[in-house]
Amino acid sequence: MDTFLQVTAYGLLQGGLLALVAVGFSLVWGIMNIVNLSHGAFVILGAYIAWEIQGWLGLDPFLGMFISAAVLFCVGYIFQRFLINLIVNGPVFITLLLTFGINMILIQGMNLFFTADFRSIQTSYGSNSFEVGNIRIPLVRLLAFLLAIVITFALVAFVKHTRTGISIMATGMDRGAARLMGIRARHVYALTFGISAALAGMAGTMIATIETFDPSKAGKFTLMAFVVAVLGGLGNMYGALVGGLLMGLVQGWAGQYLSGTWVNAIAFLVLIIVLVFRPNGLVGKAFYAARVEI
Amino acid sequence: MSTLKALKSVNGFKRTLLEGLLVLVVVAGAIFFKSTLPGGELRAVSTIFMFIALSQAWNIIGGFTGYASFGQVVFFGMGGYFTAAVMLHLHFSFWLALPLSGLFGAVFAVIIGQPLLKLKGHYFAIATLGVAEGMREVVINLPDITGGGAGISVPIAGTFAKTQYLGDGGFYLLFLALALFALAVGTVVSRNKFGYGLRAIHQNEDAAAAVGINTVRSKVMAYSLSAFITGMVGASYVFQQVTIFPERLFDVEITVLMIMMVVIGGSGTVVGPLLGALGLQFISEYLREHFTNMHTFILGGIIILAVILIPQGLVNYIREGRRTKNYSLLANIRRYRL
Amino acid sequence: MLEVKKLSAGYGRIQVLWEIDLAVGENEIVALVGPNGSGKTTLLRAITGMIPVKSGSVDFLGESIKGQSIEEIVSRGIAHVPEGRRLFPGLTVRENLILGAWRTKETSVDHVVDLFPRLGERLNQIAGSMSGGEQQMCAIARGLMSKPNLIVIDELSLGLAPVVVDEIIQALPSIAESGTSILMVDQDVDAALTIAKNAYVLEAGHCVLSGKASDLLADPRVQESYLGVG
Amino acid sequence: MSTVPILETRGLGRRFGALDAVSDVSFSVNQGEILGVIGPNGAGKSTFINLVTGHIKPTSGQVLIDGKDMTGQAPWNIARAGVARTFQIVKPFNGMTVRQNIAVGIMYESHGTNRLSVALEQAEAILEEVGLGGSGDRMPGELSTADIRRLEFAKALATKPRLLLLDEVMAGLRPTEIEPSLELIRKLKARGTTVIVVEHVMKAIVAVSDRVLVLAQGKVLMQGGPREVLADPRVIEVYLGHRYAKRQKGNA
Hints:
A: mainly alpha, ABC transporter involved in vitamin B12 uptake, BtuC, two-stranded antiparallel ribbon, 11 helices, 2 strands, disordered C terminus
């Protein structure tokens, strides 16, 4: 029973991290109908920026995270405004190819700039943990988990209660109508992508404090974001959080009770089943189902 | 260009004859080059042939039918592992394993195609990608059959080897044959009833169904035909590489390369993917040689530029330009712009 | 206020409108009628920049707005209630209204609730869950939120019960008097021609009749263009 | 002439959420008849066609073709049973020439040729028939509104239908452009083809229909001969508004 609880706790904590990785990806997909294959590269880039900030300024990653997010916001905004906006109305494989091209440039760029060595962000409290009953909880993972929850709720609050947020939602639901209100769709799209990149940067910083990273891991995070976003469903603002926690639990349990890496195979099986039978995700109904684009 | 014009001016039988001659000349040239090229270059050209075949295969489902199969590499990987497994465990000859691998891929495509081809757009792309990633994990977790993550080796010499290793020259011819086969399939499809049905489905499934096209069956057939070719190419690649690993054989980048070649060359045409495969492989090799470090960086840049400037692909761009007498790139960018 | 001269437009290379002339003055209601496919919606779309204008001119408040983006045109004071209402279905009525005032940053919804009291009871309801008539009111109210100089309304009464149509139609004159001119397209020819000052009849992308609405109401050619009998 | 109607619907209905787009539509068409279907926007005309051709599955009722129950069949099976249709929002196969657009239908017709070259030759006659002769090499995107409607018509004819459903093929056309289409419908009738003409404008319908079915708010408002239907005040009311109808009555 203790093992089960321990595995469950670990799964949930890991799930928070997954949610953090996926939340921006899900936002971009939901609002703009763009599957951003460079999302994982943004995560890794965020990790590098936080790592550099710690190296130069000695700033704690939990503070460096915000600088990382700010930098990535600008990068994301520029990419969307000047590149992706040029093909948003194209067929699927055009948007996929473009974001894959961006992915290639980012990854190779990071390889050249930071080399392909493994890195991680060391902190004085990095290996701290505490116990609840018989369950051991690593501090950094808990912080990352809490951050994921805070960010999700902050994002929901932003989207629901600010003018800018509502304009993002509206553009996601009906771009043509939003433009008729005078909302500048190009700017809103760029803003959305910037936010997504910023969230990826925060996720990257968290990951850097927990595990090692290098540019080749980008693909893994993109895939994770996929699975989590689909599981949670694009229709729900809390989708990434729910999907992430679910995924974390499944990974935790399967990792404990199944041999080898069957857990990954199962994750993809679940992904396909959800796509075929519940294309709107496991939770909630479609929010952007009636998408109209002009 | 002048040959193209010549082809235009004659029709029907004469056109077929001219094309046949052109193919003969190219084949003769390719076989002639085989004896003059050094080993390294033979391998490089073999890779070009391989991608010609792969891009033609993707073009059937992605270009003609309009379904962005982002997990096409699954058929490459499964065909390859099928060949490796039957050659190693059952001592099949490669020549028997080759068509069977194609069939294996085709049957798998029929099975997954039934549910997946109901999905549209991104959902289909993501689901197929999920299948590819998932199958890689399955292969890793069946070490008794596939060797798992440690890889698997095909017997190429000794008593268990029914087929001796083909050598650089042999694989050159094998991939040439596959490329020609794929081009032939692509050409036939582009000109027959089935291919026109696929194009109609691409444009509008409701309208296609309204003229009597069984859209479900046509899509599944296109998918499995495309998988058949991809599976055979995967089988040949495995035999050429001898030892293979799941990461390489299910590498998403192989899918992306196929798509890039088709999209940049001109999807839905036969010449487009051919040009795309030739061009992109040449550029890629050139970059690898002269800008070793910057190779992927520059390639990424080329993809971005190509997708933004000529999203409809080179061949379609030229065709449209000839029709409308308008080659403006600016007008071209406007097409998908927000 | 709005002056359209010899406007031609269409989708891609397909031309739908041929040399349309149209004018809307201050505090005026102008109706645009004609059968399906005659180009009414296309004309409205061309005016607000949703589709490009091929030739001709579109002037608003004395300045040319031809070739400008939707956002620019809207910010000059034209509101467009599009075909099919196009509310933001997942947002509340209040959020929809506030977005209508994106340009002016107005957050008070009082002046439109006065016009459509029924909306006042439903401010916190999700727009997509309301009845068709309420949605149409919400769409018009959303257009009026920014107190535009001109509001163009497409298919005002499509799919609505006659009682609801009456309710909406009755609100229009007071809107026009308060300084927002109206250019409307409607199925209900009678209703449109009764409240409008001037009207234009489109047929196959050409303007076949125009003039005082009251004159057109009596003109048998209007009925003919719909029914084909005179 | 068989006594079994070529198409019959019994209590056909479709509900979208809380909305009854079409409800309880029962009628039949006999071989060689031309049936007009009219109604204002939103009356459910297009949904009705989609229900017959299998593009939308009905939530109630039956569709019988030649007396055989075809309810809920896939659209291609309906098409192979000899039913062709056009779409109100035209759906040309872009990326193919006009001639190739027609050839697709010819090849997929059950008794049609499987050879592209033959189909392309046969396409010419159909193009001539609808007035697109000489436009065979053009792309759909280059056609005028009128021509694109003709292409839609021709695509349906390519499948050699026994029953043809025309969904607003004359919308947006000028009177001079409508006349040839009417002529073609009469010609089809003479050949024994059954035609259901769905239109918003009645002008077209009156001239060709043997019988007219009026839909309003998803239900059958009335059916009868074209003159009879046009004179009915209920029809004028649903089209031009209740006040207009009242005034007409007052004037008369």
